Inverse folding.
């Protein structure tokens, strides 16, 4: 099974390891980041070949799991991917989910999955999280301004999945 994420999430400096799969796992089917649901072991990360640590351009990666994710019709579903080069229109509602920091200056993950719906403002602490429009995965959290990315006028930056749809199809066959 392949999971889509931001490449930056795979290379965080605080990992202090050469192979992020040594500590990376995927919890699914739970709203709690540290309990419940199922856990899939990561066996490989596949970064976009043009990813840049310096500019964060092409900030996208795939995480391959040792065992398939067990999808069901109630709580564990794949998020459909967009067509190559499709765009989100300014003002469209974008659902953002993740267990990122909820208090400025306090680096403790939210214990329960958080969700907010915001309007997209342009076309282009919780790295890799999904941005969804009308049930389609349109973005992956790339970066923000430190602990301040949730402040008004300090927007989070997302990798535009549609730009990489052909690459994803080549690597995953989906």
């Amino acid at each position: 099974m392949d999971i889509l994420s931001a490449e930056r999430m795979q290379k965080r400096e605080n990992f202090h390891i050469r192979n992020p799969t040594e500590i990376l796992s995927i919890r699914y089917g739970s709203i709690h980041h540290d309990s419940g649901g199922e856990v899939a072991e990561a066996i490989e990360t596949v970064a976009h070949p043009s990813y840049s640590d310096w500019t964060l351009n092409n900030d996208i990666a795939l995480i391959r799991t040792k065992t398939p994710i067990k999808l069901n019709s109630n709580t564990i579903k794949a998020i459909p991917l967009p067509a190559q080069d499709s765009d989100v229109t300014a003002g469209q509602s974008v659902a953002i989910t993740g267990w990122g920091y909820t208090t400025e200056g306090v680096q403790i993950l939210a214990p329960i999955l958080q969700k907010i719906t915001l309007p997209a403002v342009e076309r282009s602490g919780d790295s890799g999280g999904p941005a969804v429009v009308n049930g389609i995965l349109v973005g992956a959290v790339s970066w923000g301004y430190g602990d301040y990315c949730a402040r008004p006028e300090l927007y989070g930056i997302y990798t535009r999945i549609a730009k990489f749809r052909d690459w994803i199809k080549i690597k995953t066959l989906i």
User: Anything to note?
Assistant: Confidence is low (pLDDT under 50) at residues 12-17.
